[in-house]
């Protein structure tokens, strides 16, 4: 005789205990505290996959240094509209965190955010010209005021001594610098947010619980089937709204829902590794996040960077990431994840995207084949004096890039983040990777508007939202006074200096 399946009901089910669910749960609790929430996580701890500090770059992605957000046009000009959009979204995240610190919900901001200058560094005449053009376009924009550009080696030695030591005097290079950049420990932030939610009577956290199925009921609600991975006990939860924020596994769960909006989506997994410095003397010589240009065919999360981090109160130094390929959709996933995601509805887009991105496939194979010596050679472009004895390999998180249907090409590989929701807004999933966590607040506020339209229209809701995010609905890039005010307030509350 099988084990009895228990049943329960809640308003909202959040699948995955990472930064996305933590952010959405906190927003719901602030804006609509009467809503009952259950957070379901298949691991025995929260924030252990993509949100964990060692599994992502921790860059407050604000487009200050990431060159892949500012592509070069055929005529040599640089397109910056995506950079402006991402910078706006990160400022929204900072405003939300500021509100939570001022409310004493987040008690020690230094646990999750520090000020670390954001820099871009390039080598060779062609890339120096690109960076100069990028700087000239960006410095005119309000969000990027304060950006500094130099080709002067003496200035570079002050900014990045570790990178300049042992470098040839005649090497052509340039860099930009923004002092207000940040390092964010999204794992620590997620744990703080979920700890706060757990203290609420209307929020339940369920660990070691795996969602096995999602079905639509006749009354419009969703039935979420969950298995306890310790006891084997199964249960069913009825919910009016389901959010799938399970990192790479979101695609597999979205497919189980059967909503027509999910048809045609596929996923392409990309793994990663870091070189992690283990020499404290070297770590102390570098204080910046320095991003370079990606290799031809490289996915955006593989843009090389020499990266100051603050993890568990300790300063760290990472270089990478080095891309890799695995059929897993999560670091602690299954090698059957990719095959299991292939359906009749997405096989054509996936094959088409694969054929259109053969350079990416070739790049990933090359990366997988790299020896430690090859990895050191890549680091030496950033740090000429690097020695392998000062570094060790650290496995990074697994990312799944979105593949979606395209009328012209059959399927295209997307490198951003995308929310897929049902027509009635009762279920939604977040797919994709970068900039992800950094823009989580803007993504989740927009999701609430889409999935809870009646509440989002109420004056009480909108008034509360403006308290939480003073710039909501306005453009900081077009309003210097408001931009300066929200940045000053965040700087003070988050202890950024």
TrEMBL record:
Pathway(s) it belongs to: Carbohydrate metabolism; tricarboxylic acid cycle; oxaloacetate from (S)-malate (quinone route): step 1/1
Gene Ontology molecular function: (S)-2-hydroxyglutarate dehydrogenase activity; L-malate dehydrogenase (quinone) activity
Catalytic reaction annotation: (S)-malate + a quinone = a quinol + oxaloacetate
Known EC number: 1.1.5.4
GO biological process, one term: tricarboxylic acid cycle
Swiss-Prot/TrEMBL keywords: FAD, Flavoprotein, Oxidoreductase, Tricarboxylic acid cycle
The protein's enzyme class: oxidoreductase
Protein's UniProt keywords contain rRNA-binding: no
Cofactor needs: FAD
The keyword Flavoprotein appears for this protein: yes
Family: Belongs to the MQO family.
Protein name from the UniProt record: Probable malate:quinone oxidoreductase
UniProt organism field: Sphingobacterium allocomposti
Annotated gene: mqo
């Amino acid at each position: 005789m099988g084990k009895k399946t228990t049943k329960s009901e809640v308003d909202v089910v959040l699948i995955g205990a990472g930064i996305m669910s933590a952010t959405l749960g906190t927003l719901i609790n602030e804006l609509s505290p009467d809503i009952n929430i259950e957070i379901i996580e298949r691991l025995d701890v929260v924030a252990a996959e993509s949100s964990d500090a060692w599994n992502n770059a921790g860059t407050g992605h604000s487009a200050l240094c990431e060159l892949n957000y500012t592509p070069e046009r055929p005529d040599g000009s640089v397109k910056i509209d995506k950079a402006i959009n991402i910078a706006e979204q990160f400022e929204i995240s900072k405003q939300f965190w500021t509100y939570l610190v001022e409310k004493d919900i987040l008690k020690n901001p230094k646990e999750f955010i520090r000020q670390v200058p954001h820099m871009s560094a390039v080598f060779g005449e062609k890339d120096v010209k690109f960076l100069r053009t990028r700087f000239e376009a960006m410095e005119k924009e309000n969000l990027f005021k304060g950006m500094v550009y130099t080709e002067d080696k003496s200035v570079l030695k002050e900014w990045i001594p570790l990178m300049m030591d042992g470098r040839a005097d005649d090497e052509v290079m340039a860099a930009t610098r923004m002092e207000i950049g940040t390092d964010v420990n999204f794992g620590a932030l997620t744990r703080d947010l979920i700890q706060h939610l757990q203290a609420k009577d209307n929020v339940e956290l369920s660990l070691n619980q795996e969602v096995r199925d999602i079905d639509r009921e006749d009354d419009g609600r969703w039935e979420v089937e969950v298995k306890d991975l310790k006891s084997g006990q199964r249960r069913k939860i009825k919910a009016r709204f389901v959010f799938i924020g399970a990192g790479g596994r979101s695609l597999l769960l979205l497919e189980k829902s059967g909503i027509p909006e999910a048809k045609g989506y596929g996923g392409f997994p990309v793994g990663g590794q870091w070189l992690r410095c283990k020499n404290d003397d070297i770590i102390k010589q570098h204080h910046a996040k320095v991003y370079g240009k990606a290799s031809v065919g490289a996915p955006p999360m593989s843009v090389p960077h020499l990266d100051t981090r603050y993890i568990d109160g300790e300063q760290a130094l990472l270089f990478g990431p080095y891309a890799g390929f695995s059929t897993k959709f999560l670091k602690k996933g299954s090698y059957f994840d990719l095959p299991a995601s292939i359906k009749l509805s997405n096989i054509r887009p996936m094959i088409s995207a694969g054929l259109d991105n053969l350079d990416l496939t070739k790049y990933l194979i090359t990366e997988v084949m790299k020896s430690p010596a090859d990895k050191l050679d890549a680091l030496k472009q950033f740090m000429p004096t690097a020695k392998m004895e000062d570094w060790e390999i650290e496995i990074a998180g697994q990312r799944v890039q979105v593949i979606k249907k395209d009328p012209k090409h059959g399927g295209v590989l997307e490198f951003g983040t995308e929310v897929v929701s049902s027509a009635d807004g009762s279920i939604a999933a977040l797919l994709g990777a970068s900039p992800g966590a950094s823009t989580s607040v803007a993504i989740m506020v927009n999701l609430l508007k889409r999935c809870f339209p009646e509440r989002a229209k109420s004056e009480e809701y909108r008034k509360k939202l403006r308290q939480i995010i003073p710039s909501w609905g306005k453009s900081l890039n077009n309003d210097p006074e408001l931009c300066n005010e929200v940045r000053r307030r965040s700087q003070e509350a988050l202890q950024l200096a």
